[in-house]
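Much of our argument rests on the idea that a fold can be written as discrete symbols. In the encoding step, the backbone of a single protein was reduced to a row of integers, each denoting a local shape. This step matters because it turns folding into a mapping between discrete strings. For completeness, the protein is quoted in full, as a sequence line and a line of structure tokens:
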Amino acid sequence: MPFIGTDPQHSTRADRPTALADTAQFSPAKTYEEWWAYKEAVQGSFVPGPAFWGLVNSAWNLCTIGKRQSPININTSQIIFDPFLPPLRLSMNEKKVSGTMFNTGRHVSFRLDMQQPVNISGGPLLYNHRLEEVRLHFGSENGIGSEHLMNKESLAAEVQLIHYNHDLYSNVSEASRNPNGLAIISLFVNVADNSNPFLNRMVNRETLTRISFRNEANLLQDLCIEDLYPETFGFLTYQGSMTTPPCYETVTWIIIDRPLNITSMQMHSLRLLSQNQPSQIFQSMSDNFRPVQPLFHRGLRGNLDFRKLGRKCKGANYKLHVDRPPSSNDSS
């Protein structure tokens, strides 16, 4: 099974500007939570970009001095095959979920209804982790956008499913500060002629026009989380951090090896989302990724031998295992 394809206009992003704007005023926001950005230059003002995150707030110093930071460039030749990694297991009470789409000014974010919990386990995870948010990073052109790089190449976007350790912690805020706190499943996104069914609901034009500006929200119902996972897939895993301040190093990352698709029209609609409110100048949300961080001495493990070009991922070990109560219409 070949690895993810990439756009021919790929970039290592080392010399590209990075992304966000909040206000045109030269004054810090009322809270540190607002005082960071993906782009340093904001309408002539300055908002701290990724290179400065660890300097503007002492609580964010891991962004600068941490040794297990994310995202990273994934060199597939360094991935160690681990035959003892079990398949990922999804557990839910209902087949479909509902939630709210947000324009946070930095990301497109889908947050689940708390009454419809979705848990993930298996793979490298020792505990059950509950899905809190589906977050989307994307670029201003198709050759950039994903936070993680694969052999120094980027894809157009990256979907991150952010989970917190539900066995040990009561909420995502507590979990993010503590060991084994977070699990983020990451899926790359290509621009293609068709669209993944889940993403088709998230990023279709009708939905996105309702969250055109910062702080706007829109209810979405009857989404199937299973649709975000390929029918068969391999994955790799490593220990890393949140990719936004305060960059806590409490994340188990799981990177799926088969990309999702969205259409060029949907990508265009994403780039029309504003980081600002309607009364402010338009500034696209695109390029909302953190630059890659050094790997240092961390190990990469995979449930496939990524160094073998002819590898196959067939069978139960390479499928998502789904647990849910049987319904009256489901004989299985």
Notes: Residues 67-323 form a domain with the Carbonic Anhydrase II fold (CATH 3.10.200.10).
